[in-house]
Design brief:
With 389 residues, the protein is of the alpha/beta class. It has 11 helices and 9 strands. The chain is globular.
Length: 389
């Protein structure tokens, strides 16, 4: 059993034969995918506070220095993003920051919010009003928190990172594999279209990578909610002395991910962190969220690629490039899904994958609704075949 899994009663059995099979996978064992997708987003760092102190992370600020976006700042950034043609409001912050940061807790209390998750709910409402679909990465959540937040989110996510007990997560304030797996499970139980992933180069070994991918697969097989898995390499920064994994390592890990997961689950690499052009033949089919208006606040030294650079990745595999919504096609309701896309099996404990507030936002008869519906049908303004440019 994985570290701390028993604490959360997470029972995941990874078969040794499956591990060995993945360890034997190489890039030549997988096929290129039929298309490449990306989402156009506005990145909103709701707060830079976090209860964890991971040694490779530059996102969090120490108590007394952490910031908290105001409702006015959220609305302004969402408006700028929507005007720039974005479809996704990417909300991210550290885990349970109001438990550790007195200043953040007091500010939330002054604004009338009991917790950062209550404030996130309001932030998502603002995003919907301004024409964007929220995708929230709020760290570890309970099932009851997912039950609330799913009502204003098109999708959500958290990185598993690894099922191994690594020094990068050491210290008194640490995330654990069991806690992360519990979060992914909770999202599945509440019918949330979900993004997760592994982080490569933080002290894990090849077996750890295989076991992490198989753990994600098992949770998806139970709940059907994992829409994409990110294979992200660690990058050097001011807090980290980890070496960036070399190209051969990334090619092999991406191929392992593609071989481990069902075809319906996308494999993503971040194009501002990874040599995506060199990975397109290893089974990737998504480049994640890319913003035309905001930085990557988690990796601020690594700029988002321009649209032309995304096309270069697609051209490397002779693939069409399509813009997508934060919710993947198979989770969309029938009136929004493209012809030929099979619906995902119904979620556990829910009638639909997409909450009413998100459906109403997409269906609204305004310029934002028109843009969202066009992207859902792969008729978005940044979608193009390689030969059409």
């Amino acid at each position: 059993m994985f570290p701390d899994a028993a604490t959360y009663d997470v029972d995941i059995a990874v078969a040794e034969a499956d591990v060995e099979r993945l360890l034997s996978v190489r890039p030549t064992d997988v096929d290129s995918q039929p298309a490449l997708t990306f989402a156009r987003n506005v990145f909103l760092p709701l707060t830079t506070a976090c209860r964890y102190t991971c040694t490779y992370c530059t996102y969090y600020d120490v108590p007394g220095e952490a910031s908290l976006m105001t409702p006015e700042e959220i609305r302004e950034q969402c408006r700028i993003g929507a005007d720039a043609g974005c479809t996704e409001a990417l909300f991210t912050f550290g885990d349970k920051p109001d438990e550790r940061y007195t200043k953040i807790h007091r500010q939330l209390d002054e604004w009338g919010f009991d917790s950062i998750t209550d404030y996130l709910y309001r932030a998502c409402e603002i995003a919907l009003a301004e024409g964007l679909l929220p995708h929230s990465n709020p760290g570890d959540l309970t099932e009851s928190e997912f039950a609330s937040l799913r009502e204003v989110n098109a999708s959500m996510g958290v990185m598993l990172e690894t099922t191994a007990d690594v020094d990068a997560h050491s210290g008194g304030r640490r995330k654990t594999p069991g806690q992360r797996l519990n979060t992914i499970r909770a999202a599945g139980r509440q019918g949330v279209p979900f993004t997760t992933g592994i982080l490569v180069g933080i002290g894990e070994d090849w077996r750890d990578r295989a076991e992490s991918l198989l753990a994600i697969r098992e949770l998806h097989e139970r709940y059907g909610h994992v829409q994409e898995v990110i294979v992200q390499n660690v990058v050097p920064n001011e807090r980290s002395d980890f070496d960036q994994p070399d190209l051969a390592t990334m090619r092999r890990v991406v191929a392992m991910a593609r071989a481990a997961l069902p075809e319906s689950v996308s494999v993503q690499v971040p194009p501002n962190l990874s040599p995506a052009v060199e990975l397109v033949d290893c089974g990737i089919d998504d480049l994640g969220g890319v913003s035309p208006v905001t930085d990557d606040y988690i990796n601020p030294e690594y700029e988002w690629p321009a649209l032309e650079e995304l096309h270069e990745v697609a051209d490397a595999g002779n693939l069409p490039l399509f813009e997508r919504l934060p919710t993947y096609d198979r989770y969309l309701p029938g009136d929004l899904r493209r012809d030929g896309v099979d619906a995902a099996p119904a979620p556990a404990n829910r009638d639909d994958w997409i909450p009413e507030a998100v459906r109403e936002r997409i269906a609204r008869d305004d310029v934002h609704g028109e843009r969202l519906r066009a992207v859902a049908q792969r008729n978005g303004p940044l979608s193009a075949e390689p030969s059409a440019r």
